[in-house]
Amino acid sequence: EVQLVQSGAEVKKPGESLTISCKVSGYNFMHYWLGWVRQVPGRGPEWMGNIYPDDSDIRYNPSFEGQVTMSVDRSLNTAYLHWTSLKASDTAVYYCARHGVDHGVTPKGFDSWGRGTLVTVSS
Amino acid sequence: DIQMTQSPSTLSASVGDRVTISCRASESISSWLAWYQQKPGKTPNLLIYKASTLESGVPTRFSGSESGTEFTLTISSLQPDDFATYYCHQYRAYPETFGQGTKVEMK
User: Fold this and answer.
1) What is the pLDDT of chain B when averaged over all its residues?
2) Contacting residues of A for B95, CB less than 8 Å apart
3) A96 confidence band (pLDDT: 50, 70, 90)
């Protein structure tokens, strides 16, 4: 069974740093793109970027590039999303999600999702 | 960026109704479009990918179609479990983009 298990909710102050995690199991972590998606409560999802764990190829949304850093630890089958200096506007739920592939060929969009990590940034 | 424009933003319907939700891409995305269902406080759930392919385990009352840059999600007979918000998502080009969502509520 494919599982993406995300780290727990965080409450931070503006200017603080933060790393959240996404540990995957049930599939070959190395060979599927893994995405991060932001969702502000009451609004639609926003794609932040994708990372390919095998070679750490990363595609950032220009809207988020420079604001966050994506990385993986292949030995732990875990992906990370890192902020060096949080802002109040970073308050949202952050999802990791697998970009599925049908029959190894056809991209499917995000077919498996973590439950999300709620990040609250407030002074 | 490719803009995805969904309509309507809210839809009121009754159990048994046929429901259609539209999503228009600002440029060609071929068929690289997915539809998701999301309930309050829950994770988005993939329904349709490549515009019209039903994800495994999704009821067959859900279907997707396309005509050029216009994409449609149809629920043939709305069930109580279907009241939710639906999003389209293009993955043809970076940055990937989502529609604003369509909330299907009870009439």
Assistant:
1) 97
2) 47, 61-63
3) very high
